[in-house]
Amino acid sequence: MNRLEAVRGIVDGILQSIPDLEARRCAFVHLYGVSMTAVMLADSRGLDSDLAAVSGMLHDLATYESGDPTDHGPRSAERAVQILRQAGGFSDAEMTVVQSCIAHHSDKASVHGAFEELLKDADVLQHYLYDPLQDAQPTHRDRRRRLVRTGMSRSSPESPS
Hints:
Number of helices: 8
Distance between the termini: 41 Å
Oligomer: single chain
CATH class: Mainly Alpha
Helix content: over 70%
Number of strands: 0
CATH topology: Hypothetical protein af1432
Largest sheet: none
Shape: globular
Radius of gyration: 15 Å
């Protein structure tokens, strides 16, 4: 089994334990959707698609696992490291990348590194693709517009248009 599948197996087990069926469905749709969107973006940006997929799978896990969205980025980042260690096959450097992506993914107005921006973009795109009529927050709308304008190759505000 490859390491992405190992992470998916762990996440699936956690999500299967969510008693509310609608909350469980939303968790599966969002985490898998962000993970797959992150792969597409990573490919277009020349970034590691495996790390992008893993980051997407784990980015909101603390919220779904506990039912509490408070400080979910940092809490999910810490939980991600535990899961990556359990899954095995990830270097310390790779775990640091995933942890940083997840810790910063909610700060859509700020610009961080390439992987952090990728996860932010994947999160915004998944929400939009799931429900294009949803009235997104202004920072989400701005980020989505930049993605469309740049062909999804990058979205940070200082990127050339």
